[in-house]
Amino acid sequence: MKQSPSSPMTLTCAPCCWGVDDVNNPHLPAWRQVLTEAAQAGFGGLELGPYGYMPRDVDLLTAELRHSGLFIVAGTIFDDLVSLGNRQNLLEQTDAICALIRQLPTPPASPGQRYGGPYLTVMDWGHDERDFNAGHSARAPRLAPEQWHNMVSNIRAIAALAQDKYAIRTVIHPHAGGYIEFADELHRIVSDIDNDTAGLCLDTGHLMYAGMDPVATLQRYWSRVDYIHFKDINQTIFQQVLGKSIRFFDACAEGVMCPIGQGNIDYPAIHTLLREKAYAGFITIEQERDPRNTASVLDDLTWSKNYLAKIGF
Question: Which residues belong to any copy of the Xylose isomerase-like TIM barrel domain (predicted)?
Fold first, then answer.
């Protein structure tokens, strides 16, 4: 959905709607298919997805984006943020991703938007002991103080490079199966990393998956929210996967994420809050799935877009 004249909110989508989360997955759809179907579903923009999925050739990707009438709203670092030994890799990713997205067609800005796009969204990932405990706050292990300090230090280094070299805003994304997932971890990361350094990308689905109320959490951290992700959760499948020892993306392959409006998240209440807060900027729809199950992507995205339009987005 392209931004309407009456709304400062712009809906975009992400390659994860096609199951694109790991660039090494052999079952990924062609990147041109993702661009084509994103445009067919009526979106003006989408996220870059994992670095290396979309072409790294700026001229080629720019031409394809313009042909489809699209822009890139954000790049993503989805990696181990905890280990100091991973610092160089994280900074190399930051450099490469920011250099690419800064040269692509610029996302439109809305009056009242805190920070213009594109953004760099950072998510912790790659820890089996957390992946198998996604959604289970009581049993999921927490980082020791030194490990937490290392993660904070890594995020600060990423954010400084993105801002100082590319003028790109870093947003921290709590994610199921990572070490920034649950309410205590969200509170702690906001306390330890100030707003001048990085903002938040809050994801309604990951908040719900982690046992938080999306409306209340958006309200609580509103002063830090620069960018928002929307997804919805099939309550029946959610209860089933919580009863299993299962990785987060295996739960997605079982269909735990569903089109917006078909799940357990109160989107009319979210719409009311965002209107009250005069949110201006981007909302990215995501519906993670197995990339071998992409036949319904266009129908699902169209459903989500139409549902959100019906309730006022």
Answer: 36-306
